[in-house]
Amino acid sequence: MRDDILNPYRIWDLLITVCATLAAVYIPVQLVLGLHEQAAMAYVDWVITLFFVADMLVHLRRPVTVKGQVIDSPTVLARRYMKGWFVVDLLAAIPFGLLSGATLLQLLRLAKLARVVHLLRQWRQREIQNATLLRLIFFVYWLGLIAHWLACGWLALRGMPEDIDKWTSYLRALYWCITTLATVGYGDITPTTNIQMVYAMVVMLLGVAIYGYVIGNVANLLANIDLAKAHYLASLERLSTFMRYRNIPLRLQRRIYDYYAYLWENRLGYDESTVLAELPISLRTEVSLVLKREFIEKVPFFKGASQELIRDIALELRPVVFTPGDYIFKAGEIGRHMYFISRGTVEVISADGKALFATLRDGDFFGEIALLFSQPRSASIRAVDYCDLYALGKETFERILTHYPDFAMHMQEVARGRQEPRQ
Amino acid sequence: MRDDILNPYRIWDLLITVCATLAAVYIPVQLVLGLHEQAAMAYVDWVITLFFVADMLVHLRRPVTVKGQVIDSPTVLARRYMKGWFVVDLLAAIPFGLLSGATLLQLLRLAKLARVVHLLRQWRQREIQNATLLRLIFFVYWLGLIAHWLACGWLALRGMPEDIDKWTSYLRALYWCITTLATVGYGDITPTTNIQMVYAMVVMLLGVAIYGYVIGNVANLLANIDLAKAHYLASLERLSTFMRYRNIPLRLQRRIYDYYAYLWENRLGYDESTVLAELPISLRTEVSLVLKREFIEKVPFFKGASQELIRDIALELRPVVFTPGDYIFKAGEIGRHMYFISRGTVEVISADGKALFATLRDGDFFGEIALLFSQPRSASIRAVDYCDLYALGKETFERILTHYPDFAMHMQEVARGRQEPRQ
Amino acid sequence: MRDDILNPYRIWDLLITVCATLAAVYIPVQLVLGLHEQAAMAYVDWVITLFFVADMLVHLRRPVTVKGQVIDSPTVLARRYMKGWFVVDLLAAIPFGLLSGATLLQLLRLAKLARVVHLLRQWRQREIQNATLLRLIFFVYWLGLIAHWLACGWLALRGMPEDIDKWTSYLRALYWCITTLATVGYGDITPTTNIQMVYAMVVMLLGVAIYGYVIGNVANLLANIDLAKAHYLASLERLSTFMRYRNIPLRLQRRIYDYYAYLWENRLGYDESTVLAELPISLRTEVSLVLKREFIEKVPFFKGASQELIRDIALELRPVVFTPGDYIFKAGEIGRHMYFISRGTVEVISADGKALFATLRDGDFFGEIALLFSQPRSASIRAVDYCDLYALGKETFERILTHYPDFAMHMQEVARGRQEPRQ
Amino acid sequence: MRDDILNPYRIWDLLITVCATLAAVYIPVQLVLGLHEQAAMAYVDWVITLFFVADMLVHLRRPVTVKGQVIDSPTVLARRYMKGWFVVDLLAAIPFGLLSGATLLQLLRLAKLARVVHLLRQWRQREIQNATLLRLIFFVYWLGLIAHWLACGWLALRGMPEDIDKWTSYLRALYWCITTLATVGYGDITPTTNIQMVYAMVVMLLGVAIYGYVIGNVANLLANIDLAKAHYLASLERLSTFMRYRNIPLRLQRRIYDYYAYLWENRLGYDESTVLAELPISLRTEVSLVLKREFIEKVPFFKGASQELIRDIALELRPVVFTPGDYIFKAGEIGRHMYFISRGTVEVISADGKALFATLRDGDFFGEIALLFSQPRSASIRAVDYCDLYALGKETFERILTHYPDFAMHMQEVARGRQEPRQ
C-alpha cells in the first residue's frame, strides 16, 4: 500500500472523487433552477453514470489489505463488496434524472459522497505527516459543498424572481449564504417568511460551528508547528528565571544564551541521544555506524577490531557539546574519556596555555590513552568553536571489552607496547 | 454505580430531566404569550407536577454512594434529603400556574433545573471517556434553553404586535436572538427603546462569551484528539531535523520513515513497555502472561518450570522491533539474548547469507542456546518483514533463576546434556 | 505578605481601586456630556481627591517586601516613593476639574489607573491558584472601561443631538460601541463623516483583538482544567489501541478499564509516588509518616525501632494497587515483600483456595516473615476489592538496616526466636 | 551573524523593507485613483528605483553564511545571486510607471515583497525568544497591506463617484473592507453588481481565515506564556487531590501549599537540578563553580584540594530545600551528608531543643564530620526560614575521592587528627 502516487487505483479513486463532487454540485442546481431540458446536463449525467458503474466493476476485483494481509481472491472480494459498499454504489449509479426527469430521487446519488469520505480518510491516514494540512484542504472542500447546498436550499425557499437571470439568482443566494456563515450579516438580503427565518437560524448556527472548527484547527496547527519551539522556550525561560534568581554573572549568562541559540539553529533544541533512543535497536545501530564508524576505524589500536566490536562502541559513544573557549580537559587531570570530533575545531595546547601543539578538526580524535592507562593528560584541549564531540568512557570501553576477550588481550599488548604515553 | 444503562434509577433520572426541560420551556412561553387559558397547557402542568412529586418520594428511598460506601437506611436517606435537595424539589413541585393563573411565581419551578445540572455532572463524571463529547451535548442543550429564554425576554420587552400571530412573534424574537448571539447582526430587527438597547447589549456580550466557549471547546477537542498525533509528529520532526543536520544517507532515512509509518499505523506511535508500565503489577502480570505464556511454554527446556517462574520471565521479556531486512543477529557473534516471535517472519540463514536453513513465524523462538552458554551464534537470523519480537537477556534470565534454585539446577543439567550447541 | 484578607493595607488598596475606577468613569462622561455644573459631580471629585491625597501619605509609611526583605524605615520608604510612584500619584491627586472647570487636563488623573494595574498584577501573583479566573475578571473590568471610553469618544465625534436626553445619547453611543466590538454590526447606527469612519475602523480592529483575547483565554482556561484529564485520556487511548492490536481477551480488557475508572474517580489518574516525589525531603518525610507510621508501629518486631528507622522505612514503602480478585501472593511462592493495607480488604486463604483463614482490613499487615527468612508463603492472599497497599521489599529493608546496626542485631534475635514461621 | 543591531547590512535591509512597503502601498493607489500626473508620485518612484538598483549592487558583494561557512568570494556571490534573487530584484527595479505611465506592469514591482518575506523570516529565525511577538507584528504588517490592496480592488470595481473627493472614496473603500474583514458588516455599503458580490464573498472568506489566524495566534501566545504556570498548577492540583483523598492533616496541607507558593514566587516552580541538567557539561561546570566554589573553599579540610576536585564536588552537590521549622537533622542520628547554606538561616540546637548553640547563615556549612566518620550528630539543626541548601553525600564524596588518591590520603590524616568530633 505504501507505493508511488501513480498507482492506477489511486488515479481511479481521484477520478471517482471528481465525478462524485460533480454530481454533488450539479444535481441540486438542476433541481432548484430547473435545468433539465439542457442537453449539457444530460451529457454530464451520462458520463457520471458510466464512471459509477465502472467503479462497481473495479471494486469487485480490487485487492484490499486487512491487518497487513492482502486479499485478492475474486470470490472473497465479491462477498465483501456485496456486504459492504454495494448498496451505496448501486444507488449512486442509477441515473434517476435521465429516467424520470427532475426528481428528488436524484439526491440519492449523493450517497457516492460516503465513498469520498472513506477515500479521504484513508488518504489522511496514509499521509500522517501532512494530516493537519490535509484536514484543512478537506475542510475547504466540504465547506464549499455545504455552502453550495445551503445556497440551493435558500433559492428553493425564496423562489426564482422573474426579473433576474438564473445565474444571478444563484449568485445572490450564495452571497447571502457566505455573508451569514461568515457572520458578517450585511442585512441587504434577509429572510421574510417564517420558514426562511428558521432556515436562516440553522445557517447561522452552522456558521458558528464552522467558525469554531476553523479556529480550533488553526490554533491546533499553530500549536503543533510550535511544539518544538514551545518546549525550547520553556527551557529558556526556566533557565533565565534561575539565572536571575541565583545572580549568575552576565558574561556566563551570555554564553549560556549563545549556546541555546546554537542548539536551536542547528537542531531545533533536541539532542542526539533523545532522538536515537526512540529508534529500534537495528536502526539505531545503523545510524550510529553511519555517524561514527569512520571515526572509530581511524584510531590505530582499533585496527583489527571486529565489526561487532565497532558496532558496540558506536552504540555507546555519547555525544557532548562544548562551547567556544571551553577546555575539554586540562593537562594534568586524570583522563577518563577519549573523544572523537564530529564537528568543530579544537586546539591541543600546553599546560600553561602558551604553546599550541596542534589543531584538530572534524574526524580527528584525542585522549585515547585514557582508555589504556589511568594517567594525567599530557596536554590541554580547548574548543575553538562549537564542538560536537563523541566521548567514550574508560568504564564503558572496559565493559564492552568483556564481550570480546580476544580483542581485550590484543589491547593489553598494545598497552604494554606503549609505555611511553602520548598526550 | 458502574452498572448497566437500563438501571431503573437512570431511566427515572432521564424522565425527570425531560420534565424539567419541558417546564423550563413552556413556563416562560406561557407567561409571555399569555397561554393560560389553553387546556393543553394545564394538562402538561398536571403531568409535570405529578412527576416532580413522585421524584420527591423516590429520593426518600434511593440509595446513594458516598466515598465508596452505599447508604440505604431510609432514615439516614430521609435526613440527608431534608438537609439537601428537599427545598428545591418542593418549590418545583408546586403547580403555581394551576393555583393562581399566570404569575411570575411559576418561574420558581425552574429550580428543578438545578437537579438537572447535578444529574448531568454525575453523568459526565461517569463517562470520562466521552467527557468532551458530553460537554458539547450539554452545551447545545443549555444554549437552546438560553436562546429560548432570551427570545421570551425580548418578546416581553417588545410587546405583542396586533397584526401577527403568536407563533410568528415568538419565531421573530428567536430569530433576532440567534442573529445577535451568532454575531451575524443583519439589522432587520433592532432595539428601539433604551431598555431594549440595554437588553441587546447584554445579549451581544453573552454572544461573545458563548462564542469563546464554543471555540475554546472545539479547539480543546481537536487538541485532545491530536495529542497522540502531536506527540508522534514532534518525534518525527525532531528526527528529520537530526537526519538532515547529520547527513544521514537517504536510503537509511527512507527506512526510518517507513518504520515510523509502521509504528503509527499499528500502534499510534506508542510502544508496549510504556503502556504496560502504567498498569498495576497484577494486571501487568496478567497481560504479560496472555501475550507471552504460550511462547515460553513452547521452549523445550522450560518444560517443568513453575507458573511463578513463567510469570517472572513473562514480566521480563522486552519487546523489540526489527524492520524488514535487519539482521537480528549474525552467525559468529556471541549470543546474549534469546528471542520469541510475537508477530512477523524471520529467516535462519547461513553465515555467508547464501543458504536458507529455515523460516520462523509467529510463535516460534530462536537463539535459546545463548541462555545456557556463551558461544558464537551458529547461524544468522534476518527479519523478512516488520517483526515484533520479545528478547530475553542472559543476565535477566540468570537473575530470575536465583529465585528458583531447583529450576536453576535443572537448567544446569540440561546444559550439560547439550554440549553440542545448536544455532 | 502571605497574611489574611482583612489586612488593612489590602482594604485600602481596594478603596483606592474603587476611587480610581470611579474617576476613570466619571471624568470622560463629565467632559463629553458637559456635566460640570452639577453639584453631585463636584462632591464626587472632592471625595476622590481626598482619597488620592491620603494614599500618598499612606505610601510614605507602608512597608514593602523586596526579595524577601521587609523595608520599613520611613526615610528609605520616602526615598523609594519619591523615585517611583510619586509623580503619578501627584498628577492623580490634583482636582483639575474643581480648579478650572471642564478641561482635558482632568484626563491626567486617569494616571492613577497605572496604580490599579500594579495592584491587580500583585494580586494575581499572590493568587496563583486562581490566576486564570482573576485574568478573566480583570479582563471584564478593563473591557468595561474601554467600552465606556470608546462610547465617550464616539459621543464626542457625533455631537449631542438636541432632541434626545443626555443619558439616552450616552446609551446609544455605548450600544453602538458594543455592537461593533462584539462584531454584531446591526448597521442601525453607522459613521457618516470621514473621521467617524476612521474611528469606527479603529474600534472594529480593537474588537477583533479583544475577541482573539477572549477566545484565547477561554481556550486556555479549558485546556488547563483538562490537563489532568487530557493526560489520563491519552493513557487510556494508548492502552485501548494496544489492547485491540494485541487481541487482549475482553474480560481482561474490562478489568483494565475498571481499574482506570477507579484510578480516575479516586485520584484523578495520578499515583502517590509521583506526587510525593515533587515534595522536598522534609515534607515528603512528614507526609510519609502521617500516612504510614501507624501501620509500621503496629508490627510486633518493629517495637523498639527508633523514630529515625521508622521514618526511613516510611519513606521507602512503595504504594501498590491490586484490583478485586487479584492474588497479592500465592501459597508456596518465595516471599520477597511484606505488605501494609492502607485501604481495602484482603482474604488470607489456603493454598487450594478452599479455606478462608482470615480477612484483613485497613491498617492490617501481612507477609512480614519475608523480611526475615527466604521461605515459601504459607497461605495465599487475595484482594476482595480495590486495595491500596504499601509494599516493603526484603532488599530495601536490609539496606535500611545497615544504617541501624543495633536494630539489625535485634532483628536477628527475633528471627532466631521464630524458627517456626507463620504465613 | 550573531552581531549587534547596528550592523550596516541590517540597516540596509530595513531601508529596503521600507522602500518595498512604500511601493506596495502607492502603486495600487496610483493605479486606482489615477494619480500619475502628480509630481510627488514621480519623485517617490525615482527614489525607490534608486534604492532597488543599489540593493542589486549590494547583493553582489554581501557575504552570506551557508551552514556555518561564510562565503565572501565576489564571483561565487555573483553566481549565487544570478541563479537566485536576480530576476526578482530586476523586475522590482524597473520604473514602469516612469517609462509608460499608469500600467498594470507596475504591479510587477511588488515582487520586491518576496525579498521582504525572506528578510522577515530570517529575522524571526534569529529572534527565537521573541518569535511569537514578531509573528504578531508581521501579521499586523501584512494585514495592513492586504486591507489596503482589498480596498484598492473594491475601488476599482465600484468606480469613482463624481461627488466625493478621492481621499474620501479611498477611505470609504477601506472602511468597507475593514467592516467586512472584521465580520462586523454594518451593511451601509454593500455590493450591487455580480462581480462585486463575488469580490465581497472572497473578502469575507479571507476575513474568516484572518480571524482564525489571529485567534489561533493569541491562544498560542497565551498558552506559551502559561506553559510554566500550567505545569505548576497541574502539580498543585494533583497534590491537593492526593491530600484530600488521603486526609492529610490541614496543618501539613497548609505547609505544603506554602512551600509551593514559595517555589513559584522564587523560581517559577522549577528546581535547580532540572535546569542544570539541560546544559552541556562545560557550562554546567561553570555555573556550578560560580554557585558553589566559595562554599566549598571555606571548608577547612578542603584547603589544598585541586581545582579539579573542587569542580567535581561542585558538580555533585545536590540542592535541597527545607521549609521553616524543619529539622535538617537531629542530634543522635548517624550523619550521612554535609550541608552548605546557599540561602536561608538555620539554628544549631541541643538534642533536647532547649539550647541554641549558633545561628548559621548564607555561605556557612555544617555536618562536615559526616564525610569523615560514621557517628551520631552531636547537635540538631533546624531551618528558621526557607533554606536552599546543598547536600554532599558521604558515598558521593568517597566516590569522587577515588579519582584523587593524594587528597584521599590527606583526608585520612585530617580524620586521624580529629578524633574528638565536633557537631
The global form of chain A is elongated
Stretches of chain A where pLDDT is under 50 for at least 5 consecutive residues are none
Number of strands of chain A: 10
Helical proportion of chain A?
A: 55-70%
- Evaluate the radius of gyration of chain A: 35 Å
Separation of the first and last Cα atoms of chain A: 57 Å
Q: Which chains make the largest contact?
A: A-B, 55 and 62 residues
* Global structural class of chain A: alpha+beta
Largest sheet of chain A: 4 strands, antiparallel
Give the averaged pLDDT of chain A, no decimals: 83
What is the succession of H and E elements of chain A? HHEEHHHHHHHHHHHHEEEEEEEEHH
What would your notes on this structure say?
The structure is a homotetramer of 423-residue chains. Chain A contains 16 helices and 10 strands. Chain A has helices at 8-33, 39-61, 74-83, 86-93, 96-100, 112-126, 131-158, 166-181, 194-225, 227-245, 250-267, 272-277, 281-298, 307-316, 394-401, 405-417; strands spanning 64-66, 69-71, 318-322, 327-329, 337-343, 346-349, 356-360, 365-366, 380-383, 387-393. Chain A has a 4-stranded antiparallel sheet with strand order 3-10-5-8. In chain A, helix 14 runs antiparallel to helix 15. The longest helix of chain A has 32 residues, at 194-225. Helix content of chain A is 60%, strand content 10%. In chain A, strand 6 (346-349) and strand 7 (356-360) form a beta hairpin. With 423 residues, chain A is α+β, with helices and mostly antiparallel strands. The first copy, chain A, is elongated. The interface between A and B is large, with 55 and 62 residues.
